[in-house]
Amino acid sequence: MIGRLTGRLDHKAQDHVLLDVNGVGYVVQCSERTLAALPPVKSPVSLWTELLVREDLMQLFGFLTVQEREWHRLLTSVQGIGAKGSLAILGTLGSEGVARAIALGDANAVKAAPGVGPKIAQRVVNELQGKAPAMMLIEADDPILEIDAHLSTAPEPDAPRGSPRLVASRKSSASAEALSALTNLGYAPVDASRAVAEAADDAKDTASLIRAALKLLAPKD
């Protein structure tokens, strides 16, 4: 099993990249969102990967974070969602958006992905909603910056402060911390994850996210 590749980005195409790892070129399928977030060609990069093996086919799929890869695994476990459908959903929503949509039971958000119909979208939400809390506890990392630090002698900052990728990483960490705090307080994981997902857009940090989620979880008069 190939779980992660680290090397030089030699080529970007519409739906895949060519990654040179010690002289061996690996073709890795990626979502549009992942492709857009990658650094320029010839830059060092690291991708978490999932290998699909069939009788007549072997394909590698690449992801920026472990969280994204784990969502891919869950999405492809749903009947009617293959690897292409999973990449379409992740490319449309991102791993944070997938977690939010499923925690909130928002099948319409899932349906926004190309090629995903309403019945399949509802099935995704129904089958994975109970798994959303555990997935939200996986904090997002930033492997591109990590690999820059290891492989480049004088790396240029790939993602400045305030970039969408670093903002998403901080949001994921805050969501994971808030969800952990709420479950430690005794709230059911599914209820806690739904409240965190609903409050995440307006919260500035972990503390404000917890306060906002607690308000949503408070008994209604």
The averaged pLDDT comes out at 83
- The CATH architecture of the largest domain: Orthogonal Bundle
Strand order of the largest sheet: 1-2-3-5-4
Beta strand % = 15-25%
Number of DSSP helical runs: 10
Round the Cα radius of gyration to an integer and report it. Answer: 18 Å
How many structural domains? 3
CATH topology (level 3) name of the largest domain: DNA polymerase, domain 1
The CATH superfamily of the largest domain is known as 5' to 3' exonuclease, C-terminal subdomain
Order of helices and strands: EEEHEEHHHHHHHHH
Shape by Cα distribution:
globular
Helix/sheet category: alpha+beta
Low-pLDDT runs: 142-167
CATH top level of the largest domain is Mainly Alpha
InterPro entries: DNA_helicase_Holl-junc_RuvA_I, NA-bd_OB-fold, RuvA, RuvA_2-like, RuvA_C, RuvA_C_sf
Subcellular location: Cytoplasm
Pfam families: HHH_5 (PF14520), RuvA_C (PF07499), RuvA_N (PF01330)
GO molecular function: ATP binding; four-way junction DNA binding; four-way junction helicase activity
